[in-house]
Design goal:
Helices cover about 20% and strands about 30% of the residues. It is an alpha+beta fold. The protein has a single domain, classed as Peptide Deformylase (Alpha-Beta Complex).
Length: about 170
């Protein structure tokens, strides 16, 4: 396993916009994707963006089956999403708790569009798109924010709904 170090909030790389990927067939991209899945699994993450491992490229991965950090989350298929674009399909916003591997031990309530269409490329350079809602839509939006240098606390509207998991959810310890 080649888990990489996850950059933490405060690292200046996390606040920069990532570059488009143009070389889909490279060994470097294949290694990065494998390392990102290893890193995400090692940390019980639902998703991971390349900037979180110090690579400023427009690449996110996500996958949720049984995840102790998100016990009530629906299944999200294993996805490699390169150069993503998001289209909001409804005006309705949904508030929900979010966490981040770059901000360990903390959670915050973020409102996001409840239904989106995302599109981009897989690791072979094949274009695809999906319409999603619920937790799947939240994960995609959260990870794609990283590509633009946005961390979820920047989207919190009420700072009283942001804090350490141990203080917010003391009965779950």
């Amino acid at each position: 396993m080649a888990a990489r170090e996850i950059l933490q909030m405060g690292n200046p790389l996390l606040y920069q916009r990532s570059e488009e990927i143009t070389d889909f067939g490279s060994a470097q991209l294949r290694i990065l994707i494998k390392d990102m899945f290893d890193t995400m699994a090692d940390s019980d993450g639902a998703g991971l963006a390349a900037p979180q491992v110090g690579v400023l490229q427009r690449l996110v991965i996500f996958s949720v089956e049984a995840n102790p950090r998100y016990p009530d989350a629906e299944t999200v298929p294993r996805t490699i999403l390169i150069n993503p674009e998001i289209e909001v399909l409804v005006d309705e916003q949904e508030a929900g708790w979010e966490g981040c591997l770059s901000i360990p031990g903390m959670r915050g309530v973020v409102s996001r569009p409840s239904q989106i269409r995302y599109s981009g490329y897989n690791e072979k350079g094949e274009k695809f798109s999906r319409e999603v809602s619920g937790f799947h839509a939240r994960v995609v939006q959260h990870e794609c924010d990283h590509l633009d240098g946005v961390l979820y606390p920047m989207r919190i509207q009420d700072i009283r709904q942001f804090g350490y998991e141990s203080a917010l959810f003391p009965d779950e310890e």
